[in-house]
Amino acid sequence: MPEATRNAKGGTIDSWRFAKGEEKWLWCGYGREVIQLAKRMNDAATECEMTGKEERPGVYVEITLVCK
């Protein structure tokens, strides 16, 4: 669950904070989760922000994740 969520034009921005060195994973499921992707994020990152653009509520057409 994100620590904070704010509205953005056409979608939302979710953000998380982590302790330095904490292990983080990104997981995405597509097509009723027929396809699943997982990627380990950089352990040095302490903040991540995900921007999601929605076609309609709950249906995202673009997701961008940036970790610093």
Q: Please tell me the overall pLDDT.
A: 88
> How do the helices and strands follow one another from N- to C-terminus?
EEEEEE
Name the shape in a single word: flat
Question: What is the number of independent domains?
Answer: 1
Alpha-carbon distance between the two ends: 18 Å
The count of DSSP E runs of length 2 or more, i.e. the number of strands, is 6
Measured by DSSP, the beta-strand proportion falls in over 45%
Total count of helical runs of at least 4 residues: 0
List the uncertain runs.
none
How would you describe this protein?
With 68 residues, the protein is an all-beta fold. It has one domain. 0% of the residues lie in helices and 63% in strands. It has no helices and six strands. It has a four-stranded antiparallel sheet with strand order 1-2-5-6, with no helix packed on it. It is flat. The two termini are 18 Å apart.
Summarize this, please?
With 68 residues, this protein is an all-beta fold. The protein has no helices and 6 strands.
Topology:
Blueprint: E1 4-8, E2 11-17, E3 25-30, E4 35-40, E5 47-56, E6 59-67
Antiparallel strand pairs: 1-2, 2-5, 3-4, 5-6
Keywords:
single chain, 68 residues, mainly beta, four-stranded antiparallel sheet, two-stranded antiparallel sheet, flat
